[in-house]
């Protein structure tokens, strides 16, 4: 959800600094453990539908819009960010795969 929001910020603001957040603290909130995983999977599926529609409609100019990532102290174009986010998704899938083997 954060990645999608970052794209929307970059598309609607001039080179925004994206908000940083504490991922570990976020993972400790009550809804994480109390919500069935199927709800999260449904949310992820719906989010990917919205994000895919957005991505398919971007112009070449929009792909070059950018944001500043305060944790990395680096600027990212949307094109660069999508490559990083694709890797990030595969990284999480690899973790899930490893858990399924144990």
Task: Give the arrangement of secondary structure elements.
Elements: H1 2-12, H2 23-27, H3 30-34, H4 37-56, H5 60-63, E1 66-69, E2 74-77, H6 78-101
Antiparallel strand pairs: 1-2
Explain what the structure shows.
The chain is mainly alpha-helical and 102 residues long. It has a single domain, classed as Four Helix Bundle (Hemerythrin (Met), subunit A) (Up-down Bundle). The chain is 68% helix and 8% strand. It contains 6 helices and 2 strands. The chain has a two-stranded antiparallel ribbon. It is globular. The two termini are 29 Å apart.
First and last CA, distance: 29 Å
By CATH's scheme, which homologous superfamily applies? dinb family like domain
Output the CATH topology.
Four Helix Bundle (Hemerythrin (Met), subunit A)
| SSE string | HHHHHEEH
Q: Mean pLDDT, rounded to whole units?
A: 94
- Please state the second-level CATH architecture: Up-down Bundle
Radius of gyration: 15 Å
Query: How many structural domains can be distinguished in the coordinates?
Result: 1
**Main β sheet profile:** 2 strands, antiparallel
Helix content: 55-70%
Overall form? globular
Beta-strand proportion: 5-15%
Q: What CATH first level would be assigned?
A: Mainly Alpha
The number of distinct helices, counting runs of at least 4 residues, comes to 6
Regions with little confidence, pLDDT below 50 for 5+ residues: none
Structural class: mainly alpha
The number of distinct β-strands equals 2
Annotation keywords:
single chain; 102 residues; mainly alpha; Four Helix Bundle (Hemerythrin (Met), subunit A); two-stranded antiparallel ribbon; 2 strands
């Amino acid at each position: 959800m954060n990645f999608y929001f970052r794209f929307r910020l970059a598309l609607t603001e001039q080179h925004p600094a994206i908000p940083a957040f504490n991922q570990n603290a976020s993972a400790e909130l009550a809804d994480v453990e109390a919500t069935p995983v199927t709800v999260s999977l449904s949310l992820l599926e719906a989010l990917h539908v919205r994000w895919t529609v957005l991505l398919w409609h971007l112009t070449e100019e929009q792909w070059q819009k950018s944001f500043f990532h305060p944790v990395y102290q680096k600027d990212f174009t949307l094109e660069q960010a999508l490559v990083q986010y694709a890797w990030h998704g595969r990284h999480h899938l690899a973790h899930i795969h490893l858990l399924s083997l144990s």
